[in-house]
Amino acid sequence: MSGRQLAGRTFAAPELVSGYEDWYATPYGRIADALETEVLLELLKPLGPGARVLELGCGTAHFGAALAARGFRVSGVDPEPAMLAVARSRSPRCLRSRARACRACVGTDCDCRFAIAPSTAS
């Protein structure tokens, strides 16, 4: 199996989409969201609003939309088309492309690149 085929199988999980955002509506999800967003904003504070941010594995653009609402210019990539559909609907300006096009993002002029892997690795 090629690396591309493996990546497609590893991350193709459209059933995660509804549960992903639903979790943030739970009491624990709201607490985690507030804490994670606070930490992320603190880490990005030196860059200031208007900074260009690339979010790798953006999922439904949960964090990307929060950053965009605070003035950051966010591009996001994700391998799951169903996640990207939600991301496009919530924050069309902060979405770049599917992960397979991520090679084009590597040279992107960004002030910060980040991935929040623990939030989806369970």
How would you characterize this protein structure?
- Helices cover 48% and strands 13% of the residues.
- Strand 2 (73-78), helix 5 and strand 3 form a beta-alpha-beta unit.
- The protein has a single domain (3-119), classed as 3-Layer(aba) Sandwich (Rossmann fold).
- The chain has 122 residues and is α/β, with parallel strands linked by helices.
- It has a four-stranded parallel beta sheet with strand order 3-2-1-4, with helices on one face.
Write the layout of secondary structure elements.
Layout: H1 3-11, H2 16-24, H3 27-44, E1 52-56, H4 62-69, E2 73-78, H5 81-90, E3 97-98, H6 103-106, E4 112-114
Parallel strand pairs: 1-2, 1-4, 2-3
CATH fold name, please? Rossmann fold
CATH architecture: 3-Layer(aba) Sandwich
Q: What is the residue-averaged pLDDT?
A: 73
- Strand content is 5-15%
CATH superfamily: Vaccinia Virus protein VP39
Concise overview:
This protein has one domain: Rossmann fold (3-Layer(aba) Sandwich), CATH 3.40.50.150. Helix content is 48%, strand content 13%. The chain has 6 helices and 4 strands; from the N terminus they run H-H-H-E-H-E-H-E-H-E.
What key attributes describe this structure?
Rossmann fold, disordered C terminus, 6 helices, 4-stranded parallel β-sheet, alpha/beta, 13% strand, 122 residues
